[in-house]
Amino acid sequence: MLTQTGLISLAEVTDLNQLKLELSEVPAIDVGDYIEDLPEERRAIAFRLLNKGKATEVFEYLEPDVREALIGSLNDGQVHQLIEEMSPDDRAELFDELPAGVVRRLIQGLSLAERHATAMILGYPEGTAGRVMTTEYVRLQEGLTVLQALEKIRRLDRDKETIYYAYVTDNNRKLRSVVSLRQLLFSLPDAQIQDIASDRLIRVRTDTPQEEAAQVMMRYDLIAVPVVDSEDRLVGIVTIDDMVDVLEEEATEDIQKIAGVTGGDESSLSPPLQKLRNRLPWLLGIMGLYIGASSSISPFQSTIAKVPVLAVVMPLFSNTGGTVGIQALTVTIRSLGVGEVTPEDTWEILKRELQAGLGTAFSLGGTMVLLSLIWTKPEERWVALVAGVVMSINSLVAVTLGTLLPIGLKRLNLDPALVSGPLVTTMLDTIGFILFLTMITVSLNILGAPV
Amino acid sequence: MLTQTGLISLAEVTDLNQLKLELSEVPAIDVGDYIEDLPEERRAIAFRLLNKGKATEVFEYLEPDVREALIGSLNDGQVHQLIEEMSPDDRAELFDELPAGVVRRLIQGLSLAERHATAMILGYPEGTAGRVMTTEYVRLQEGLTVLQALEKIRRLDRDKETIYYAYVTDNNRKLRSVVSLRQLLFSLPDAQIQDIASDRLIRVRTDTPQEEAAQVMMRYDLIAVPVVDSEDRLVGIVTIDDMVDVLEEEATEDIQKIAGVTGGDESSLSPPLQKLRNRLPWLLGIMGLYIGASSSISPFQSTIAKVPVLAVVMPLFSNTGGTVGIQALTVTIRSLGVGEVTPEDTWEILKRELQAGLGTAFSLGGTMVLLSLIWTKPEERWVALVAGVVMSINSLVAVTLGTLLPIGLKRLNLDPALVSGPLVTTMLDTIGFILFLTMITVSLNILGAPV
């Protein structure tokens, strides 16, 4: 729906040459959407109208199942050419999706250089910079002049994913410095590149997690960052367009995990079965855990029979306390996620959360007393007071759990978003109910409060 | 903590020239962090060590209060030079933060061109492309050759924020086409730029919301997008580094709004008072709304006194039903937020959510029956059946509300994330409690079910 270009439907096409021209002028991603919207049997027709370079680009934007079907309907020569032209990182992603047998056949058709590049990327674990990097970058040898560097780029680097940074390496491919195309363009032709290049350069390693690479690029406003191996040899670059996608995926995952939706980024239009698979396990898990909360109420049934207004008041502090916990949880997870804080900041964060939490506890406790007075009979007014006290305590417990649980996971090198909202509300309900019902029962049976 | 460069503390500095050299080599954002960490009285000392260009860059990264203090401690000449050198969009942002009196004085010190550029940007509403664009872009007149274009860029565009795209305009500044520096570099020097430039170019308007501009850039993998006025005249460009920040802010806002935290992006380290201001209104609002839910239970107190196991079962389906609602809500808000779906897709989305919802309703209803059997006495077993039925119905209501409420807001051109999680759980509790307690009371009093 963000498409800025309109295309006619293939059914209305009378002149294939006209469509061919249209397709060559429209951005690749729009052509991709167009092809996906076509009936399956027409997709290959439209795809064959694309010129070589465009076909590769469009192919990279297609959905996995559409790609697989296309590979089936094109002839071997066409397929091999297509795969050969893809950038190594996109090719690695494609190979991840396809059946092993198909991949084996495709790899055999690749040139040695491309086969090597793909194998290298596939060798790094998913979610690392090594896996999302491209091996198509501009490398300059130390010792060139600006003019020589520009000539080299003009001659040899036409196909590189970005030419806006060039990386300078020594004879062992060790990364020494970086020079931007901008610097090359604004320098005198006979200047030495090592004189204008910067050797304080930002780099990530092949095993750097992709979110961290994205955050580094964001911090330093880079459109590409070099990736080096354990011996500081340059092996690839990560470009900003891939990193923007990583940031969006990570944000979606965080949001959905907090809400108790697992399995990566689910869309509104994901298939119903996938939705069910992403959500049901959490729901059943939460119900299972909630046996604890409900079982903690069960022994107090005689108390509730005596003071049924408890059943009116309990959902109120359960809902409110849960919200307090989720608020703190969400802010903590997000701050950890975007790298604003680390587990070292634990005490500073907890201090601030508890200071705010005191204000919350005081306000909500007071409100709880007032609201409870609506439903309590005159002789039961003391119940309102107990409810207020429990609401206050519950608020402080809520911010503490919402802050410490995700930080604790992060300390253990686990994903902080594993503590989802429903988990926190379940814990809070259990604690709150036991506290409340115990206080009420003690007031009734030991202190002899009236009902 | 993502800083890749270490700096010594100013207290340890014996040689200011050494520090000056260090500061000139470290990225501006790291220098900014370094200055912010210094005691207040030393910040101006360190800042004065920076050369002109670096000072401006560093200044743009400082926190608002640090900037204001610095403006106070530098002399007028230094301040005017600093402000003059800033890019118009960052200057506009600075002026937004400073007291009106200070801004007036600063504006008077600006050159006419910069004053004009800033006034134009400040004229666009916050949150639009016009407000985040920069007016420093490369513009080429139609009719130039590649060589002339490169010469023009080399001579006149040294200060432009990005030189990697050049925009071609006609005599009336109307945007005609775009050519990348890459294309210029790989073309023959005497080619006409209009022959290599693309006239199918992606553009946004000054009043395009910033999230939409960010999504367009993401879709088309652009590192800059031109901004045009209502008459299609080029007035600025938006660059990818600003858009990445916009995407991150929007994601944070969405996450936090769903959790009931208002007021933009709160960090774990935000001041406690701000935290309280962001969260308490929602909590009190939710408690106020919950009067409805609790009041709906109140009339059934005699039923609860007769069947106190109801108080054990009710929190279970309230917690679970709330989670079902928040799951659907979160997926919907995120899909709308990243532009994957629009309100036109309403029925398709609802269909899929309800199909998955049927599976959820069936599973959770069954589990509810089984779990309720734990706490019900033999003669109360029928309560478990009613609880299961209500759980199923509640699940279907939950996915419906979680899907339709945010889409409805979007249709009204409001922010879908205004329907926060706690709002949905409050609505679901009210509906669920009324349904459950009515069914139980009818079973007891009219059907004569045993207790």
Automatic annotation (TrEMBL), chains A, B:
Residues 133-196, 197-253 form the CBS domain. It holds the Pfam family MgtE. The chain crosses the membrane at residues 280-297, 309-334, 354-375, 382-407, 427-447. It is a multi-pass membrane protein. It comes from the Bacteria. It is found in: Cell membrane; Membrane. One of its GO terms (molecular function) is metal ion binding. Keywords: CBS domain, Cell membrane, Magnesium, Membrane, Metal-binding, Transmembrane, Transmembrane helix, Transport. Acts as a magnesium transporter. Homodimer. This is Magnesium transporter MgtE. The gene is mgtE.
